[in-house]
Amino acid sequence: MNKPLHQFFTNDHHRIDALLNKATEQPGEIDLNYYHHFRTQLLRHIKMEENTLFPAAKKVNPEVVQALIPRFRLEHGALTALMVPPPTSTLIKVIRYILEIHDMAEEEPGGLYDVCEALTHGQTQELLDQLAKTEEVPVHPPNPAPIAMASARRALKRANYDFEEIVRGA
Ligand SMILES: [Fe+2]
Ligand SMILES: [Fe+2]
Q1: Which of 43, 81, 95, 133 shows the smallest number of beta carbons within 10 Å?
Q2: What protein residues have CB closer than 5 angstroms to ion ligand 2?
Q3: Radius of gyration over alpha carbons of the chain, in Å?
Q4: Domains held by the chain: number
C-alpha cells in the first residue's frame, strides 16, 4: 500500500538522525552548527505532528486518536526539554535513546503513522502541502542554567523515562 504520510515523516526522521550523526561525527567533539540544525529540525518535526497530523486525524476519529496520543505528546515534551541545555555526550545519549523508541513507535506497522494515515485518507495531498509549508521553530541559544537540565529531567519523568537510568544503561 502506498503510504505517503508515513513515508514523509519517516524520511524526516532519517534526515534529522543524519544531522545528529553529523554533529557527533568527530569523537569527543560536538559540531554546534550541525547540532543547531538538528535542534531546529527536530522541533519543526514535532510541530508538524502536533499542529497538522494529530489534529487532522483527531477530527476524523477523536476517540481513537485521543487514546493514542498522550504518550507521544509526553515524549515530544521530553525531547523539546532536552533541546534546551547545551549539548554534551551524556545529553545526546539520552536524546538518541528516546528518539529511537519514539520514532519506532510512530513508524512500526499499525503504529501512530499508520493509524493517522488511514484516518486522513482522502486529504493526504492537502496535508502534505500543509506540512511542506511548516516553518522552522525559532530557538534560543542553549541554556547552561541548572534549571534547564532539571526541567528536562522532570519532562522525562512525566514521559516515564529516567535520565540517570538511561545514562547508566549500555
Ligand atoms: Fe513524534
Ligand atoms: Fe516523528
Answers
A1: 133
A2: 106
A3: 16
A4: 1
pTM above 0.90, yes or no: yes
Distance CA 141, CA 36 (A): 9
- Which residues, 6+ apart, have CB-to-CB distance to 109 below 8 Å? none
Q: Distance from the CA of 94 to the center of ligand 2, in angstroms?
A: 17
Q: Which ligand is nearest to the CA of 79?
A: 1
Q: How far is the CA of 156 from the centre of ligand 2 (A)?
A: 17
pLDDT in 10s for each residue of the chain, 170 residues: 689 999 999 999 999 999 999 999 999 999 999 999 999 999 999 999 999 999 999 999 999 999 999 999 999 999 999 999 999 999 999 999 999 999 999 999 999 999 999 999 999 999 999 999 999 999 999 999 999 999 999 999 999 999 999 999 96
Cα(150) to ligand 2 centroid in Å equals 25
